[in-house]
Amino acid sequence: MNSPKLRCRFWETVPLEKMTHDEWEALCDGCGKCCMNKLEDEETGEVALTNIACRLLDDETCRCSQYPIRHQFVPECIVLKPQNIEENLYWMPQTCAYKLLWNGQKLKDWHPLISGDPESVHLAGVSMRGRTVPEFEVPEEDWEEYIIEEPT
Ligand code: SF4
Ligand code: SF4
Hints:
The protein is an alpha+beta fold. It is about 20% helix and about 15% strand. The protein has one domain. The protein is built from 6 helices and 6 strands, in the order ααββββααααββ. A hairpin with a 6-residue loop joins strand 1 (about 35-40) and strand 2 (about 45-55). The longest helix has 6 residues, at about 20-25. The protein starts with 9 loop residues before the first helix and ends with a strand. The mean pLDDT is about 95. InterPro entries: Puta_zinc/iron-chelating_dom (IPR005358), UCP006173 (IPR008228). It holds the Pfam family CxxCxxCC.
């Protein structure tokens, strides 16, 4: 059941830029993939995903451990909003709910808003839960060895 702060099936009817703060936040499926470090090829611009997690990611919950105050620790963490989605699409995970809706696609069946269960993203095997390595454990010159295929 939806929380009273969320309009019924808002993701199907409300454009991203018209969503309330709570609706916007509820769109995040909790996959944790955007909190992985990425490697960008300077020549091709291609972006590779690694399983090396940002220092604030909690591998068990797959959520940021300091979300409200994260910029005190990770100033470069991007605050995604309708105005900057387009410029960030190139690195965003394929299944990211924001990317899907921006591209006019539907949320996946395992999305917690559809399933009603926050665990469904993990049960579907598309999240990073239990798969990450903390960034302080791997020197940056070795990150290439941790490149992974996005779980989808
Ligand atoms: S990739 Fe998208 S849906 Fe997944 S955790 Fe990041 S913002 Fe949320
Ligand atoms: S600061 Fe938090 S939200 Fe930002 S990348 Fe790190 S874990 Fe993710």
